[in-house]
Specification:
Distance between the termini: 24 Å
Largest sheet: none
Number of strands: 0
Strand content: under 5%
Helix content: 40-55%
Oligomer: single chain
Number of helices: 5
Radius of gyration: 15 Å
């Protein structure tokens, strides 16, 4: 499931997206959903998630998490683990000083994923 997201970031070009973005209407609807959830949990305005093809993957993951929550799996003691790779994001979303991180991490991608994660999961689910 992560491979299309990985390839979206690695093979993005302006003439043809490997992972096409959501339609403008769907992207606005998903960003609004996240924004409403964000305000309900009093998160900082710094936790803004930009528009782009990555919203398609984040929306897929959000839907999958909802399906998991509605299933009998949580009542069986099973937990859901989600992996999001920073190559999901287009290079222009990542700050130019990302290369300075000795661990090879991308701080801008980490901030976006952390903001999204805090908005689509409950505090109980994150603990």
């Amino acid at each position: 499931m992560n491979e299309p997201a990985h390839l979206a970031g690695m093979f993005y070009n302006t003439s043809q997206d490997y992972l096409p973005p959501l339609s403008m209407e769907d992207a606005a609807q998903y960003l609004s959903k996240i924004g409403q959830f964000n305000q309900a949990h009093h998160s900082s305005l710094e936790n803004i998630i930009p528009d782009g093809p990555h919203l398609r993957v984040l929306s897929w993951l959000d839907t999958a998490m909802d399906m998991f929550r509605r299933s009998k799996l949580p009542s069986m003691g099973l937990q859901l683990h989600v992996n999001v790779h920073e190559s999901l994001f287009r290079a222009e979303l990542l700050e130019s000083d990302d290369d300075l991180d000795m661990g090879g991490r991308h701080p801008a991608a980490t901030k976006i994923v952390a903001a999204w994660w805090s908005q689509v999961t409950t505090q109980e689910e994150r603990s």
